[in-house]
Design a protein that fits this description.
The protein has 574 residues and is α/β, with parallel strands linked by helices. It has 23 helices and 21 strands.
């Protein structure tokens, strides 16, 4: 058998705590990747997956990291002991990487075209006129709609999923021999996830490319990987081919991961829930430039309307760029919009400044990208308690105790509250963001992909926590997600959006088992398996009308066929 393209041999990684002490985060890790082979590295957040991947390209700060044991060989040459000049020739050209958080990785001051052209110019020596065609081709391949219109966009003008797709395009432009993909589909909806999986498989064959795929999404790993390495607390506890891992796992931790898929039902609704949030005819417009002097307005959210009742969870699903997050930002009054937004019988659409402040503590949000929403200059205690200082009159000791309590509730060690965001994994940062929102005990919590960067075991803990808090305090949630199994487990009502419009809405049972729109059926077809249907749940049309705002134009649509889950399962396996 030929030598592996990449061989990680007995690798240990430690971070320097001070001059004399070190903290070992990875211990004696070994694995091989051969040509055109995909190895998936899976495990809980903080298990050492990303640190191991970053070490391959020596991207960890050399002044803060040591490698007590082992070596990393690429084409039988050591990367761990390579010179800076050798590493520069390998990075980008032969080994490329897709990072977990695109908003941090993309330059906020440069357009999409400029950042992608820089890659082609440096690594493939292309001129701008030739590079533009290549850029458009790859943006189209990763699922960017109307790529030509996105060339002049800046990262903040793209949705989370679009930013992730730009990162993927940037990584594969150089035709690397090995692609390291660190959670490349985290912010993508299920349909685009399927596109990306197909794309990566095609690129493997076209470019003879190998893939190190880091993910907590075991459904994607099952479709993509040839071999799987399971990491726990810095060690590989199981390493085998995909079939053996999924059919006959040997380690207890592997079995725990496989059994941690979203399940269960939403928290019980109150007997007589009143309407907490009512949104009607919501529009959001942006200025689209056609020329230097010519400006046109474009609606990215068009005539959106729905209601959220006390103690209820309303899920919003749809493709990336469909207007889900924009709708949430409009409700939060963080962007300009037209229409009616009524919270607890108070119109808040035109409120600003001090008049809006009392509602800020009652409506909280967890953003999609935790790293961008956490102040890197604040430690965790300062971040979580910041809202208390603004909205609550408490002593320093009371605030500190409140921070300790909420950190324990979301599964964080309170002893870590003096650390900074850069010292935490992606999943841990998301839990910090959730703690910051929950500490004010809001009545409405807007959750924008709150578990997208969490592995399934932690995701299950967070969802169970949100359900218990909802039942205890009658909290209401507006839950934005592309994870349909999670939406079914969490939400009472579901709103389906496409191109800025609501095309269908209703109870979770109605949407998942009797969808009317072809687009809804298409989304559901990407589920690996149908959600477990509650045996005592029936679709009550009267109840449907009670809990869901619907536009008159939707009421005359004909009943569609139910989803054929046998066909859906077959599609998911392709």
């Amino acid at each position: 058998m030929s030598s592996p393209l990449l061989s990680v041999q007995d690798l240990s990684i430690a971070f320097k705590r001070n001059i004399q002490a070190e903290s070992q985060v990875v211990s004696n890790v070994s694995f091989d990747i051969h040509e055109q082979e995909t190895l998936a590295l899976v495990g809980e957040s903080g298990s050492g997956k990303s640190v191991t991947a970053l070490s391959i390209l020596r991207l960890l700060c050399k002044d803060q990291v040591t490698y007590p044991t082992g070596d990393i060989l690429f084409e039988e040459k050591s990367l761990l002991h390579a010179t800076d000049k050798t590493l520069q020739s390998v990075r980008g050209n032969q080994i490329s990487m897709i990072f977990q958080e695109p908003m941090v990785s993309l330059n906020p001051l440069h357009t999409v075209e400029k950042q992608l052209y820089e890659v082609l110019s440096l690594h493939r020596g292309m001129r701008r006129n030739v590079a533009r065609n290549e850029i458009l081709q790859y943006l189209d391949r990763v699922g960017i709609k109307d790529p030509k219109s996105k060339l002049s966009s800046y990262p903040h003008q793209l949705s989370g999923g679009e930013r992730q797709r730009v990162m993927i395009a940037m990584a594969i432009l150089t035709h690397p021999k090995l692609l390291i993909a660190d959670e490349p589909t985290t912010a993508l909806d299920v349909s685009v996830q399927a596109q990306i999986i197909r794309l990566l498989k095609e690129l493997k064959n076209e470019l003879n490319m190998s893939l190190l795929f880091i993910s907590h999404n075991l459904g994607i790993v099952k479709k993509l990987a040839d071999k799987v390495a399971v990491m726990q607390q810095g060690k590989i506890v199981e390493y085998n081919n995909r079939q053996r891992i999924f059919l006959r796992p040997e380690h207890e931790y592997t079995r725990t991961l496989l059994n941690s898929a979203p399940s269960g039902d939403p928290a019980p609704l109150p007997n007589t829930p009143g309407i907490l949030l009512n949104v009607n005819h919501l529009d959001v417009e942006v200025i689209a430039r056609k020329g230097f002097f010519q400006k046109t307005k474009k609606k990215i959210v068009n005539n959106v309307g729905f209601a959220v009742h006390q103690g209820e969870t309303v899920g919003i699903v749809g493709e990336s760029g469909s207007g889900k997050s924009t709708t949430a930002l409009a409700i939060l009054r963080l962007i300009k919009s037209q229409g009616n937004i009524v919270f607890d019988s108070h119109p808040i659409q035109n409120l600003t400044g001090k008049k809006l402040l009392p509602f800020r503590s009652r409506i909280q949000v967890v953003f999609q990208d935790p790293f961008s929403s956490l102040n890197p200059r604040f430690n965790i205690e300062q971040i979580i308690s910041e809202g208390l200082m603004t909205h609550k009159k408490q002593s320093k000791k009371q605030r500190e105790q409140a921070v300790i309590d909420i950190m324990q509730e979301v599964g964080l060690d309170p002893d870590m509250r003096y650390r900074y965001p850069t010292e935490f994994s992606g999943g841990q940062r998301q839990r910090i963001a959730i703690a910051r929102a929950l500490i004010l005990k809001p009545e409405l919590l807007i959750l924008d992909e709150p578990t997208s960067s969490l592995d399934h075991t932690i995701q299950k803990q967070i969802i169970n926590l949100l359900k218990s808090l909802q039942e205890k305090h009658q909290l209401s949630y507006l839950f934005i997600s592309h994870d349909l199994a999670l939406v079914y487990s969490m939400c009472h009502q579901v709103v389906v959006m496409k191109e800025g419009r609501i095309i269908e809405q209703g109870s979770r049972e109605k949407i998942f088992y009797s969808p009317e729109e072809e687009y809804t059926k298409e989304l559901l077809s990407f589920l690996d398996k149908p959600p477990r249907r509650a045996s005592n749940t029936l679709i009550d049309e009267n109840k449907e009308e009670k809990f869901t705002h619907q536009d008159d134009s939707q009421s005359n649509k004909k009943q569609g066929k139910k989803v054929n889950w046998d066909d859906a399962l077959l599609m998911g396996k392709r």
